[in-house]
Amino acid sequence: MSTRAFITGVSGTELTAVEREFIRDQRPWGFILFKRNVATPAQVATLVAELRTAAGAADAPVLIDQEGGRVQRLGPPHWPVYPPGAVFSTLYDTDSALGLTAARLSARLIAADLADLGITVDCLPLADVPVPGADAVIGNRAYGTEPGKVAAIARAVTEGLEQGGVLPVLKHIPGHGRATADTHFKLPTVDTPRNELERTDFAAFKPLSDLPMAMTAHVVFSAVDPAHPATTSATMIADVIRGAIGFQGLLMSDDVSMNALSGNIAERTRAIFAAGCDMALHCNGNIEEMREVAGQTPELAGRALERASAALAARKAPQPLDRVAARMELDALIARANTASA
Fold first, then answer.
1. Which among 24, 59, 110, 208 is most buried, taking Cβ atoms within 10 Å?
2. What distance in Å separates the CA atoms of residue 147 and residue 207, rounded to the nearest whole number?
3. How far is CA 265 from CA 46, 126, 214, in A?
4. If you average pLDDT over residues 60-75, what whole number do you get?
5. How far is 224 from 178, CA to CA, in rounded Å?
6. Which residues are known to be catalytic?
7. Which family does it belong to (predicted)?
């Protein structure tokens, strides 16, 4: 059965009759969960199964933002707390091998949590490179301020997720680290020259160009396209994301409903596809907005279908994991990082 090229959220901890009908009729490619969708492990697993049943697709991807730190949709009392990216950065500066080990372990444990629930995609790793004066929306989520280190830690996170049978989504391509505003509320413009962007922001993503999926940044880079954020810029997508960075996987937008984008939801969705994104992402569970997105979303076909199929095919079988031993090792490494940063 064909699907439409969008990923949708839903409103609560169980599907409403209206949402079930919407999913059946509009056939989204995948789904994304947030804290409003989470109560208990059994409830989340049931919701995930219901989403796939409504879609008529046993392999429909279910996504979540489970980074650790401030961005963790699954948390206590049912799920453990995971460290923010800055912890791996600190440990890497003390001993690069240990920093990579901690990043890989954390992601592997996260993947095990997700696999228990049937969640198959994590919107992780970040390759954003923050700079002084940037908005705190990235902040300690980042793996550092040097592109090579950021890429190395992001690769370790990717490996941990893949070892647990969970697909990674690289974000926020081609970089959110210089943004001076939170794109949930406002559109930031970065005026950094192209050659500096190539050396820093874009350089962190380039070694990760083989990842199966990536999420765009709602950020204007005036040196490349002063009129449009990367998400709706054909120039940014063709010249930078597909060109200079070399990413050839499935490209999804960041959330359509974020206020960094201009126009109504339908106009934003059209602009996303016109620019060259393969997939639109809508997160807030508002059924009227969901209908607007679906109404402007094409059937998944051509190169977008090829990339989506390749992304799903890249998912690997989980490797064995001793969770207790892995968590003990991760906690010891976190303690070491905390001591180093004190």
1. 110
2. 10
3. 30, 26, 21
4. 97
5. 15
6. 184, 254
7. Belongs to the glycosyl hydrolase 3 family.
Query: In this structure, are residues 128 and 144 in contact, taking their beta carbons and an 8 Å threshold?
Result: no
Query: How buried is 324 (Cβ within 10 angstroms: 0-12 exposed, 13-18 middle, 19+ buried)?
Result: exposed
Decide if 102 contacts 333 (C-beta within 8 A).
yes
- pLDDT tens-digit map of 196-217: 999 999 999 999 999 999 999 9
User: CA-to-CA distance for 188 and 29, rounded, in angstroms?
Assistant: 29
β-pairing, 71-72 with 66-68?
antiparallel
Question: What is the b/e burial string over 294-309, where b = at least 16 CB atoms within 10 angstroms of the residue's CB?
Answer: bebbeebeeebbebbe
- Per domain, the residue ranges of the chain are 4-341
Amino acid identity, residue 277? C
Say if pTM beats, i.e. exceeds, 0.85: yes
126 DSSP 8-state letter: B
The domain defined by 4-341 carries CATH number 3.20.20.300: yes
Compute the Cα dihedral for 46, 48, 49, 54 and give only its sign.
positive
Q: How many CB atoms lie within 10 A of CB 53?
A: 15
In degrees to the nearest 10, what's the CA dihedral of 309, 314, 320, 325? -110
Number of Cβ within a 10 Å radius of residue 249: 21
